[in-house]
Amino acid sequence: MDDGLSNAVQEVFVRLYEDDLIYRGKRLVNWDPKLHTAISDLEVENKDKKGHMCTSATL
After folding, report:
1. What residues does 32 pair with on adjacent strands?
2. Which domain holds residue 22?
3. Residue 13 CA: distances (Å) to CA of 7, 22, 39, 51, 56
4. Residue 53 lies in a domain
5. How far apart (Å, rounded) are the C-alpha atoms in residues 7 and 1?
């Protein structure tokens, strides 16, 4: 994006945030490692799989 367009997008996001129309929260994001993009919950096929959970405390 050129600088003018990038600045306009940033200005709109700041304005929406200040008006409490958008917010930043903690939630899961479905990430496609092949396409390098986020995908919709509707596009995800959930499957149960045995494994283990790794947390920052165990690293």
Report:
1. 37
2. 3-41
3. 10, 8, 21, 39, 31
4. no
5. 10
DSSP code per residue over 1-59: --HHHHHHHHHHHHHHHHTTSS-------EEETTTTEEE-GGG------------GGG-
Give yes or no for residue 56 having a pLDDT over 90.
no
In this structure, is residue 55 part of a structural domain?
no
| Interior angle at CA 22, CA 17 and CA 28, nearest 5 | 130
Residue 49: predicted pLDDT:
86
Does the predicted TM-score (pTM) go above 0.70? no
**Domains in the chain, number:** 1
